[in-house]
């Protein structure tokens, strides 16, 4: 069963940092180098200094970007820039944002969750991970001994009992309320009433948790836990390193939004790819329909491409191919291909996914991109924005782009419940959970208080 517990959160001291929009950031994995520099220049206490420390000439095993981030983290606490709450709490979290012309408010709670093996069925992944980010995050975690960014997980609660119970303990005023750099309005409430903490803890006990975003950080936390268990063999099961910081949201929240991570392919493997050869091979599996050639990048053409995606949503597997001088084609899976090829090779829950069709038929069978090639971030890149895909093509940063419709939340649940794994970046839960609102320091000798 899932063990979700309150904790003494660490957060910015509003007396020292009154403008939180200057210091919070998106998660590390969506911050581009130029954005990293912009965040760093915004405020010396910006979270990017902790989550994306920079290498320097002369770095070695004892002095490097990870040890510098850890020293900075300790310094901020000493200076009371970051302060820790005196008693355990659940943190009720609202994120207000606009999507498709409608204002939405996603609700969640920040809490600690006991680490469980991914094979145990309590906490379930749905995506593959990359090797390099896990190694990077582990070094940062070993040095800093803290969760800087909450892992985003979802739970099935059709009656919304968890959030309703949590709201019963809301104080009159939020701990923090501000508009972040992405234009999303964030509100965080600290809930400390003992009866409410116990009720929420009990309500979540029998619910599975599905990792929505943060697979790398979860696997990194498991690796860190394994290391500390060796260092502290007599530690209690309630030792702080047996838990990880999570943001939890209800699968049935009507304002839970999933976007698609569109695929960008480049590198030497595709440098000499011929248009006629690719289209001939695609015709074996797809009905290929040419679309008007792209004009210079801009919203009108982006809107045209999005409209074409919207028109085929829910009508079988279809996506858009861009490339070869900014040409475009719509690819629709031919009748019978799914049954004859995909369903014989994989579980039905996977065979229904557009992204799996793309990976299996095009990336693997046609282009010959094996798992190692798809793990190479120079060969395979991702973006949730059509405009960025068009720009990457025009600037030669990618040879091909594949635009897809989003994976449905029910498909995520089916895959996770069947203990299956989707291809990397199959989902993009929007907006990302911001980093810097609440942190979790990990003292190996500290024990977690469980509200029994």
Describe what this molecule looks like in 3D.
By secondary structure, the protein is an alpha+beta fold. The chain has 2 domains: 265 residues, no CATH class; 145 residues, 2-Layer Sandwich (Conserved hypothetical protein from pyrococcus furiosus pfu- 392566-001, domain 2), CATH 3.30.1760. Helix content is 33%, strand content 23%. The protein contains 15 helices and 21 strands. Strands 1, 4, 5, 6, 8, 9, 10, 11 and 12 form a 9-stranded mixed sheet that branches. Helix 3 packs across helix 4, helix 4 packs across helix 7 and helix 5 runs antiparallel to helix 6. It starts with a strand and ends in an 11-residue tail after the last strand. The relative contact order is 0.18. The model has no long low-confidence stretch (mean pLDDT 92).
Compile the SSE list and pairings.
Layout: E1 4-5, E2 10-12, H1 33-42, H2 48-51, H3 65-78, E3 82-84, E4 90-99, E5 102-114, E6 123-124, H4 131-144, E7 146-147, E8 151-155, H5 161-167, E9 176-179, E10 185-191, H6 194-204, E11 209-213, H7 215-231, E12 243-250, E13 257-259, E14 262-265, H8 275-282, E15 286-291, H9 299-312, E16 318-323, E17 327-333, H10 337-345, H11 348-351, H12 354-366, H13 371-375, E18 380-383, H14 386-394, E19 400-403, H15 409-417, E20 428-430, E21 440-441
Parallel strand pairs: 6-11, 8-12
Antiparallel strand pairs: 1-5, 2-3, 4-5, 4-10, 5-12, 7-21, 8-11, 9-10, 13-20, 14-18, 14-19, 15-17, 16-17, 16-19
Helix pairs in contact: 3-4, 4-7, 5-6
């Amino acid at each position: 069963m899932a063990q979700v517990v309150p904790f003494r959160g660490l957060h910015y001291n509003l007396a020292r940092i009154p403008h939180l929009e200057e210091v919070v950031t998106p998660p590390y994995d969506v911050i581009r180098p130029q954005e990293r520099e912009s965040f760093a220049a915004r405020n010396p206490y910006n979270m990017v200094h902790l989550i994306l420390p920079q290498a320097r000439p002369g770095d070695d095993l004892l002095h490097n970007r990870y040890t510098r981030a850890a020293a900075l983290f300790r310094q901020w606490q000493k200076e009371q820039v970051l302060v820790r709450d005196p008693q355990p709490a659940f943190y009720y979290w609202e994120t207000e944002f606009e999507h498709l012309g409608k204002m939405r408010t996603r609700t969640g709670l920040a809490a600690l969750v006991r680490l469980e093996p991914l094979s145990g069925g309590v906490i379930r992944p749905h995506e593959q991970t990359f090797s390099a980010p896990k190694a990077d995050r582990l070094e940062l975690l070993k040095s800093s001994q803290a969760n800087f960014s909450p892992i985003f997980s979802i739970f099935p609660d059709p009656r919304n009992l968890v959030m309703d119970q949590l709201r019963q303990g809301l104080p009159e005023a939020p701990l923090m309320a501000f508009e972040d750099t992405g234009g999303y309005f964030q509100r965080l409430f600290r809930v400390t009433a003992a009866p409410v903490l116990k009720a929420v803890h009990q309500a979540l006990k029998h619910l599975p948790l599905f990792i929505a975003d943060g697979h790398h950080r979860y696997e990194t936390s498991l690796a860190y836990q394994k290391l500390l268990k060796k260092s502290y063999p007599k530690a209690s099961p309630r030792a702080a390193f047996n838990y990880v910081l999570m943001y939890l949201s209800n699968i049935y929240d009507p304002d839970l939004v999933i976007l698609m991570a569109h695929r960008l392919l480049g590198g030497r493997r595709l440098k000499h790819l011929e248009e006629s050869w690719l289209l001939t091979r695609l015709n074996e599996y797809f009905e290929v329909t040419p679309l008007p050639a792209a004009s210079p990048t801009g919203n009108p053409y982006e809107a045209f491409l999005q409209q074409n995606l919207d028109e085929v949503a829910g009508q079988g597997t279809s996506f858009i191919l861009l490339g070869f001088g900014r040409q475009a084609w719509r690819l629709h899976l031919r009748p019978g291909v799914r049954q004859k090829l995909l369903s014989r090779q994989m579980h039905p829950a996977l065979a229904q996914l557009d992204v799996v069709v793309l990976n299996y038929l095009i990336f693997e069978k046609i282009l010959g991109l094996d798992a190692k090639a798809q793990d190479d971030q120079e060969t395979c890149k991702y973006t949730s924005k059509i405009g960025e895909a068009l720009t990457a093509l025009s600037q030669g940063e990618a040879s091909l782009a594949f635009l897809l419709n989003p994976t449905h939340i029910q498909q995520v649940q089916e895959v996770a419940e069947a203990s299956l794994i989707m291809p990397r970046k199959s989902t993009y839960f929007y907006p990302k959970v911001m980093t810097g609102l609440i942190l979790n320091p990990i003292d190996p000798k500290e024990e977690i208080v469980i509200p029994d």
